[in-house]
Amino acid sequence: MEKNRKRMETMHRMRAKGLELFYQKGYHATSIDDILKELSLSKGAFYHHFKSKDDFFISIIQNIIMQKVYALLVAPLTQDKSPIPSIIDTIDNALKTAEHNGMDCGFILANFLNEFNKGDNEIIQYLRDILKVWEINLISLLKKGRTDGHISWSVNCEEAATYIIASYMGIRTMMVGNNAKIMKYQYMQQLKAYLYAMEQREERAY
Amino acid sequence: MEKNRKRMETMHRMRAKGLELFYQKGYHATSIDDILKELSLSKGAFYHHFKSKDDFFISIIQNIIMQKVYALLVAPLTQDKSPIPSIIDTIDNALKTAEHNGMDCGFILANFLNEFNKGDNEIIQYLRDILKVWEINLISLLKKGRTDGHISWSVNCEEAATYIIASYMGIRTMMVGNNAKIMKYQYMQQLKAYLYAMEQREERAY
DNA sequence: TTTGTAACAGACTTAACGGTCTGTGAGCCT
DNA sequence: AGGCTCACAGACCGTTAAGTCTGTTACAAA
C-alpha cells in the first residue's frame, strides 16, 4: 500500500503544478513538458498516471478547481447574516484575494470557460457544471432571503443570480493587469447599490 | 497604382478571414495556413504583406475590431433619448445580434482580452485601449445625463460604467453555447432594474 | 520591347508538442 | 531468494506551427 500513497502524492503534485501553469499561461499554451520540467519528472511518469493531457485536465477540474470555486464562492454564502450581506462579503473577499495577488490572472473558471468555449471539447461541460453549482446556491440563498423577509418579493432570484455571476466574471477579467484596486472598489460600490435595492423596504410596500 | 489597390484588397481579405477564424477558434489555435487555405493563398503572399502573425493580428485589431466594437457599443449610445434608455437599447441590440447568431463565440473583445491576458504580449494594450474607448464614452454619457437631470446626482458615473461593462462582458461569456435567449432575458431584466434605480426619482414601472 | 518591381507560389527549415515505447531499479509477495 | 509489478526515465516518432528563401509571373514605367 506504500506504492499507492506514492502514486497519489505524485499525481497530486502534477495536478497542482499543472493547474498553476494552466492558470498562468493557459491550457493550450502550457505543454506537458513545461509541467514535468518544474517537477523534475519525465514523460513516462506523466503517461503512466494519466492517459492524455485532456484526461489530466479533467482530473484537475474535479479534484482541485471544483473545491477551490466552492470554497471561494459557494461555502462563504452560508453565514448567519441575511443573504445580501453574505453575498457582498463573499464577493468582496473573493476580490480581495485577487487584488492582493500580484500574479492574479483572472477568475480561474471564467478563464478556462473562455478557452474551451471554442471547439467541441467535452471539458467545457465540467466547467459549466461548476458554474451551475454556484448559480444554484445563489438562487436558493436569494429565495430563502425572500421567504425570510430580507428580500423584496418583486425580485426574480434566477435573474439576480445570473446578473451577479455575470458581473463578477466580467470584473475579474477587467482586474487582470493593473487598476485592480480601483476596479474592485468601483465594482463593489455598484454591486452594493444593486443588491441593497433588492432589500425589503417599508417605503415600497405594494 | 493598380498594384496598390490589389495589395489593399488582398490584405483586407486576409484580415477579414483571419478575424473570422481567430474569433471562432482562438488566436493561438488558428494557424496562418488555416487562413491561407480558405483564401487559396500561400505563405509567400502572407509574409509579403505582414511581417509576423502578431503584426497581422495587430492590424486586424486596428482595422476591424476597433470599428466593430465602436459601431456595436459606442456609436449607438448617441441617440435622441435620455442616456439610460440609450444604454439599454444599445446593449439589448448588441445582445440581440449575439443571440440570433448560431455561431456566436462571445464578446470578441473579451475573448481576446482573456487570451492575451496571459503572457507579456504587447497586443493586450491595443485591446485594452478599445475597451477604454467604450468606458470613456459610457462615462461621459452618464455624466451628461446627470447634468441634464435624467440621472440622480448620487450616481458615480465611473463606477456605473465599470459595472455595466463588467456585467456585459460576463453575460456574453455565459451566453456562449446554449441558453443564450434565457440568459439575455434574465440579464436585461436586471440591467434595467439596476439602471432605472439610477434615474432621477420618478415613478417607473417594472 | 525591355526591365524592374510588386504580388504571389510553395518547398524548406527549425522547433515544439502530444503521445508511444522500451527499459530500469526499487520494493512487495510468495 | 527470486520473480513480478509499479513508478518512473528518456529516447523516439509523427505532426504541426511560424517563419524563410528561392523562385515565377504579371504589369508598369522607361
Verbal overview:
The structure is a homodimer of 206-residue chains. Chain A is built from nine helices and no strands. Chain A starts with a helix and ends in a 10-residue tail after the last helix. The longest helix of chain A has 25 residues, at 123-147. By secondary structure, the first copy, chain A, is mainly α. In chain A, helix 4 (53-74) runs parallel beside helix 7. Chain A is elongated and about 65 Å long. Residues 202-206 of chain A have low confidence and may be disordered. The first copy, chain A, has two domains: 1-50, Homeodomain-like (Arc Repressor Mutant, subunit A, Orthogonal Bundle), CATH 1.10.10; 61-203, Tetracycline Repressor, domain 2, CATH 1.10.357. Chain A has helices at residues 2-25, 32-39, 43-49, 53-74, 83-99, 108-116, 123-147, 157-175, 180-196. The A-B interface holds A 24-26, 28-29, 105-106, 110-111, 113-115, 117-119, 124, 128, 131, 156, 158-160, 162-163, 165-171, 173-174, 176-177, 183, 186-187, 189-191, 193-194, 197 and B 24-26, 28-29, 105-106, 110-111, 113-115, 117-119, 124, 128, 131, 156, 158-160, 162-163, 165-171, 173-174, 176-177, 183, 186-187, 189-191, 193-194, 197. Chain B binds a DNA duplex (30 and 30 nucleotides) through residues 1-4, 6-7, 10, 31-33, 41-49, 52-53.
Number of domains of chain A: 2
List segments of chain A where confidence is low: pLDDT < 50 over at least 5 consecutive residues.
202-206
Question: What proportion of the residues of chain A is helical, as a percent range?
Answer: over 70%
Chain oligomer state: homodimer
Number of helices of chain A: 9
Assigned CATH superfamily of the largest domain in chain A = Tetracycline Repressor, domain 2
